[in-house]
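Dissemination and training. As part of the outreach component of the grant, students in the summer workshop were shown how a complex can be specified as a set of sequence lines and then modelled as a single object. The example used during the hands-on session is reproduced here so that future cohorts can follow it. Participants entered these lines:
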Amino acid sequence: MKHSLLHKLLAPCAGLLFAVFLWWLGTLWLTRSMPIASNLSPLRAFPELFALLGSSLIWEHTLTSLQRVLAGLGFALLVGVPAGILTGISIGFAQTTGTLFQFLRMISPLSWMPIAVMVLGVGDAPVYFLLAFAAVWPILLNTAAGVGQLDENWLLLSRSLSATPWERLRRVILPAIAPHILTGVRLAIGVIWIVLVPAEMLGVSAGLGYFILDTRDRLAYHELMATILLIGFLGFLLDQLARYLHKRWFQR
Amino acid sequence: MTNSITAIPNPEGGVLQAESLTFSHDGGAPVFADVSFSVRPQETLALLGASGCGKSTLLRLLAGLEKPLQGSVKFLGEPLVQPHPRSALVFQQASLLPWLNVADNVSFGLDFRHQPRINTQERKTRVQNALQAVGMAGHEKSSPAQLSGGMAQRVALARALAREPQLLFADEPFSALDPITRGEMQSLMVDVVHRWHTAALLVTHDIDEAILVADRILLMGGAPAKIIAEWTVDLPHPRTVYPHAIQELRQEILEAFRGCNPLGNHQVHQRKLSPAVTAIQPSHFYI
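and obtained this result:
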């Protein structure tokens, strides 16, 4: 027991510390040829991170980014769940869309950025589009897999009760695939968080991605490194939260 | 209250009548052809046959879940167009809905639009009665994941009873259970079917199960399958105390099955089996 606790807590910390050490060595080496790189050092980034967290500015950017995560996830669910159910129950729909979906899925969502800005205008709308476009695939595919794994007898049971299509959907299919949708959501959150930062680098004036470019323009490289740390930390927390919710659902 | 018993409009014709049913999957060779029989009120009828002989398909058809190629099904004298609200299904697997507790599983679907309207109080009473009947009272709040296979199958039986069926369709309901639990469930089924005044159609490949549970046994065989023999089992319950009579009938059924000529005519056996008290013989024979 003691042994496993040691491994669970100490080993990850040792890994993190070792990475910080390598990071410090790297910036030290870089500074010899490029004096400004001293700003990238962990010795500057960590104090700056705490200074940033003390200011209201970074919280506004963070809040904006998290709102976009939620909005992107919401749109992805609105499209992904119905499309996933259709794919799962209709062989015709699955055959018609299968190749198309595989094709679209492999296009980096960011490739659509110029077109999204052109069509949807400057502002939040293209960011939502890009996030939703990135997040829809894990949700869609997991939903379809969930429908594929439905117990045949549940459907027979609902048919023997002369269930209407709505009753079958709401009382059998949706609750049965909820865990799969949740798996999709967990994966989608990871994808959204990765796409968020570059998506926020165009046409918006708030958010963590915007803030990264802002620090670059102000040559505030210590702030840039601190923001990168914050992005990593928030992403880690989001994933842990999604994992926790997922686990709780399964343990009900 | 106990379960309400409504008058059966057409008792002579039986609860269910199958009239020269023929069925094939997607226009292929017929699975069974020209199958006719009826289920009498409050009778337990076993449909016995080897695995894959089409008896489960026949059950689905009788339950209104499949359409016949030819022939018709009448439920309480009316042509069956969709699953009848006074019929209920029990499968080989309990197939409880894991996101609902036991009580909600039992009452599942009672509020569906095409089901007879009943109020909340009536629904509660039905759930209680059904759980009591299968010996699962007190487990209302349990989650299906906490139940053993036998307990889950009891809840599945309660779910069927809560619909107050006049005909209970059971498709190999106990074949996934261990022999001891299976025996318990077979006597529970006999008990519950009698107390609920419902007819039951039991599909099974277990000869002993058919003999232990059913009032009448129809043997299916051949390709396409037909009903090749019929027995009336007139032994009092519990039948495990008549091993000789059971063995005699088992032998007769096995012989009828081996000697089955696909084109042969339906031979009707009337067996009046006499009790002979000896020890229990627990062996099972499958065909």
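Chain A is about 85% helix and 0% strand. Students were then asked to discuss how this feature might be tested experimentally.
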